[in-house]
Amino acid sequence: MTLSLGPSVLDSSLYIADLRPKRKESALADLVSRAHEAGAVREPSLLRETLELRERLGTTAIGKGVALPHARSIAVIEPRLMVARSRRGIDWGAADGLPVQLVLLALSPPEHSEEIHHEFVARAVAVARLQRNRQKLIEAPSFEAVAAVLREVSG
Amino acid sequence: MSEVATVLQLHDLDLLLNEALDPKSRARLKKLGFEVQDPVVLQRARARLLQGVDRRWVNHYERALKRYGRAVAVVRDRVCQGCFITLPTSASPNAQESLTVCESCGRILYWR
């Protein structure tokens, strides 16, 4: 089983055009709150705690202004990829020191194996690694445009 | 934090800890560009969480974790999603017991 970055994991209600917080803890809280409002997760405080624990293991910022927080959690109902942008940038503790402008949050339910979850995360990483994809995602005018980029580049 | 919330946190933390301790998993994450530091911080958090759970439930939890790799199963439509058995009405949580165990597989049940 592999997850493509298509309609099964994307949802317009899980897209945030401009994340306001400057700190990653607050940004994660906003993302989880939105996911909960959209019905994608139960127990939002549990998911927030799990994402923060993951960050304590090492930052999920991969450089070049991108962060890919991820969790396999009992709080997650179905696999989802949240996309969020930040105009002013978020301090995510990236090794290159750059503030994060693009956040891709990969959420998997616990029934998905670690391998399936990592494959899901890897697809998102592969998209974000290419400069032209990052630029398209950051500049996309709407969720539909973001979804089209992800569909196009992840096959 | 309630005992149920603590057990759910323990569940998620153990998934994360498995990732951090498994060399193959660590290698995959590093190859993707993620930092994976020494999981001692998770092990300390785990020890703290265990202190907030009654010994009896800790024993159920550890036994199921050892056997299945995950100690908690979601209940959907009265079906344990760990072993897919339909649960009897008497298995529901009540005022005395907020946590329950699947009598078939022994996993701790998460009713939602």
Uncertain runs of chain A: none
What's the tally of helices of chain A? 5
Strand order of the largest sheet of chain B: 2-1-4-3
Helix content of chain B: 40-55%
- The SS-based structural class of chain B is alpha+beta
* Main beta sheet strand tally, sense and closure of chain A: 6 strands, mixed
Biggest interface pair, residues each?
A-B, 30 and 31 residues
Query: Helical stretch count of chain B?
Result: 4
Rounded to the nearest angstrom, the distance between the terminal CA atoms of chain B is: 18 Å
Largest sheet of chain B: 4 strands, mixed
Rg of chain A, Cα atoms, Å? 14 Å
What is the level-2 CATH architecture name of chain B? Answer: Orthogonal Bundle
How many domains comprise the coordinates of chain A? 1
| Helix-residue proportion of chain A | 40-55%
Account of the protein in words:
The complex is a heterodimer of chains A (155) and B (112). Chain A is α/β, with parallel strands linked by helices. Chain A has 5 helices and 6 strands; from the N terminus they run E-H-H-E-E-E-E-E-H-H-H. In chain A, a hairpin with a 2-residue loop joins strand 2 and strand 3. In chain A, helix 1 packs antiparallel against helix 2. With 112 residues, chain B is α+β, with helices and mostly antiparallel strands. In chain B, 48% of the residues lie in helices and 12% in strands. Chain B is built from 4 helices and 4 strands; from the N terminus they run H-H-H-H-E-E-E-E. Chain B has helices spanning 3-21, 23-31, 40-51, 55-68, and strands at residues 72-76, 79-80, 100-101, 108-111. A 4-stranded mixed beta sheet of chain B has the order 2-1-4-3. In chain B, helix 1 runs antiparallel to helix 3 (40-51). At the A-B interface, helix 2 and helix 3 of A face helix 1, helix 2 and helix 3 of B. Chain A: GO terms for molecular function: protein kinase activator activity. Chain A: Keywords: Sugar transport, Transport.
